[in-house]
UniProtKB/TrEMBL annotation:
Membrane-spanning intervals of the chain: 44-64, 315-341
Task performed by this protein: Plays a role in transport between endoplasmic reticulum and Golgi.
Species annotation: Neogobius melanostomus
Protein name: Endoplasmic reticulum-Golgi intermediate compartment protein
Family the UniProt entry places it in: Belongs to the ERGIC family.
Keyword entries, A-Z: Endoplasmic reticulum, ER-Golgi transport, Golgi apparatus, Membrane, Transmembrane, Transmembrane helix, Transport
BP GO terms, sorted: endoplasmic reticulum to Golgi vesicle-mediated transport; retrograde vesicle-mediated transport, Golgi to endoplasmic reticulum
């Protein structure tokens, strides 16, 4: 029993000794409240500091809620898969006069079975015109942006309303095609296409030149999976030609993109485009074929886009940094300002004391002389 008591006393002594050592390591000394003096200036500075803390913490919370896109670039190693082309174009010619197909770099003609030809009216109804103007306004805003995120991932407006008043003098070509991942040429020209040993040909001789009119409107053109809400570069583009023999060319560079956000995950493609158009006049040396030609090339680089969010621990660290930084800075500023004020007051008091001593000495000298 005596040994147990001695062991218990030694343990209690060790605990007290350890507690004293921990107290000596306290980096936050406690000042008794009786020694703390509250001032109006200190209260004002504290109020300003707390206001700044609350405002910055509130703004930091919105930063924490926001997300950003991380861009990674790598070589596209997928050469075997097919590239999907999504098309929705309205041409100001009747459907029986035109044909659309794709010819790739290897002179391989791609079957256009996935395209539908729908007779429509080229002139838009007021509701459709309003939709197109809205889409063009969005496109103009997107061209001013410098971030791929804003160009590619912003939500768009709904699809165009279907309203085709008579007469049906135009043709809407819409659908999708699967092509090889090599450069190619998607074109819409006069006459239906027929197979040819050296590629293909169009039966243009059966169509009168008076029927030529390649004024067109690109309702939608994209590559890859169809993602609702994404606005592509050429969406809403409208070209009106006063001449019958007119060639429109679009030179497109396609960039494969793997998109992974909190809402969607898809393999899509971005593209940039250069436009060119001219009137076909063989007498003046402007040779070519009337129609709409979209020559595309695929970039060898792939962009991987991932949406990221600030971790909770980072938000808490930033929040502590804001609160501690403002608290320390305002404390130092208050101390410096208080010191300067004390120096100024001390200087003024010293000057007054010296002046009073001088006046007193002069008065005493006058009294001694009298």
């Amino acid at each position: 029993i005596l040994l147990i008591c001695l062991f218990g006393q030694d343990s209690a002594f060790m605990n007290i000794h350890t507690l004293n050592l921990v107290k000596e390591l306290d980096a936050f000394p406690k000042v008794p409240e009786s020694y703390v003096e509250s001032t109006a200036s200190g209260g004002t500075v504290s109020l300003i500091a707390f206001t700044f803390m609350a405002a910055l913490a509130f703004l930091e919370f919105f930063v924490y809620r926001d997300t950003w896109m991380k861009y990674e670039y790598e070589v596209d190693k997928d050469f075997t898969s097919k590239l999907r082309i999504n098309v929705d174009i309205t041409v100001a010619m009747k459907c029986q006069y035109i044909g659309a197909d794709v010819l790739d770099l290897a002179e391989t003609m791609v079957a256009s079975d996935g395209l539908e030809y729908e007779p429509v009216n080229f002139e838009l109804s007021p509701q459709q015109r309003l939709w197109q103007l809205t889409l063009l306004h969005i496109q103009e805003r997107l061209r001013l942006e410098h971030s791929l995120q804003d160009v590619l991932f912003k939500s768009a407006i709904k699809i165009a309303p279907e309203d085709s008043p008579a007469p049906l003098n135009a043709c809407r070509i819409h659908g999708h095609l699967y092509v090889n991942k090599v450069a190619g040429n998607f074109h819409i020209t006069v006459g239906k296409s027929i197979p040819h040993p050296r590629g293909h040909a169009h039966l243009a001789a059966l169509v009168s030149h008076d029927s030529f009119n390649f004024s067109h409107r690109i309702n939608h053109l994209s590559f890859g999976e169809m993602i609702p809400g994404i606005i592509s570069t050429l969406d809403g583009t409208e070209k009106v030609s006063p001449e019958s023999n007119h060639m429109f060319q679009y030179f497109i560079t396609i960039v494969p993109t793997k998109l992974n956000t909190y809402k969607i995950a898809a393999d899509t493609h971005q593209y940039s485009v250069t436009e060119r158009e001219r009137v076909i006049n063989h007498a003046l040396g402007s040779h070519g074929v009337s129609g709409i030609f979209m020559k595309y090339d695929i970039s060898s680089l792939m962009i991987r886009v991932t949406e990221q969010h600030m971790p909770l621990w980072q938000f808490l660290v930033r929040l502590c940094g804001i609160i501690g930084g403002i608290f320390s800075t305002t404390g130092m500023l208050h101390g410096v300002v208080g010191f300067l004020v004390d120096v100024v007051i001390f200087t003024q008091d010293t000057s007054l004391a010296v002046q009073e001593n001088s006046e007193t000495s002069a008065l005493m000298e006058n009294q001694q002389q009298h």
